[in-house]
């Protein structure tokens, strides 16, 4: 069976690949949007923190025998604590300065982290086995769906929309938003705003590490896996609107699917289609599709 002259199996497989990539774009851009929207920091270290999440899971499995399910919780927690340390010791000094200072600091940290991991593990990449519970696949008739890839989509969407609900619909989220807009008033109500800000950065970093653990069984775990992805993720954030939570989620998923379809109909453009869309959006709506002017 064919659609527009393209075999259904090929079209379905590329849409699946696009949806998987879109899931990673969504969860990574969500972390960036949270950090920028609530802290006004452009976290260029996000890709390195994604890479560290994958490496923590790989080291935990190969050196200590810690399974995937424990790493799915432990790796974001460990990398998130590192994020808290970075916020406490470095980023806190930059909140009242221009965005460029935060960008330069986090870019430098990204280079340092990547350099450390390249020195220790090289750049050839390490494999991470799919957990036994999620091995195998399901025959959908027109294509074969690996169970793990289906799990990645479900887990990413659950975390993304759960995060959106926490920020937009709960009292904690209201405190976070109010604390960034008028910290003195919120502190007068007895709320520890600096602690909320630290929690926000740590949570955004933990999202990146969570995505790294999800990616470990699919991609090779290597020190450059974050730098290869972060530029596309920044483009997703710009298209969705800097600081827009829902914009990051929807745009990430949509661009992943568009990228997958482009590989079917015009493979040569698949590596640049996201950036072409970004240029068009910036010309028409500089604040992004879901951003505020």
Order of helices and strands: EEHHHHEEHHHHHHH
Q: Please summarize the sheet with the most strands.
A: 2 strands, antiparallel
How many separate helices?
11
Tell me how many strands there are.
4
Q: Assign a percent range to the helix content.
A: over 70%
Strand content: under 5%
Going by helix content, strand content and strand pairing, the class is mainly alpha
Overall, the morphology is globular
**Total discrete domains:** 2
Unreliable parts: none
Radius of gyration: 19 Å
Mean pLDDT across the residues is: 90
Within the largest sheet, what's the order of strands?
1-2
Q: End-to-end distance, in Å?
A: 46 Å
What attributes does this structure have?
293 residues; mainly alpha; two-stranded antiparallel sheet; 11 helices; 3% strand; globular
Report on the architecture of this protein:
With 293 residues, the protein is mainly α. The protein folds into 2 domains: 29-222, no CATH class; 226-293, no CATH class. The protein has helices at 8-39, 46-64, 68-89, 99-121, 147-169, 171-181, 183-188, 193-215, 227-240, 245-265, 273-284; strands spanning 2-3, 6-7, 137-139, 144-146. It has a two-stranded antiparallel sheet. The mean pLDDT is 90.
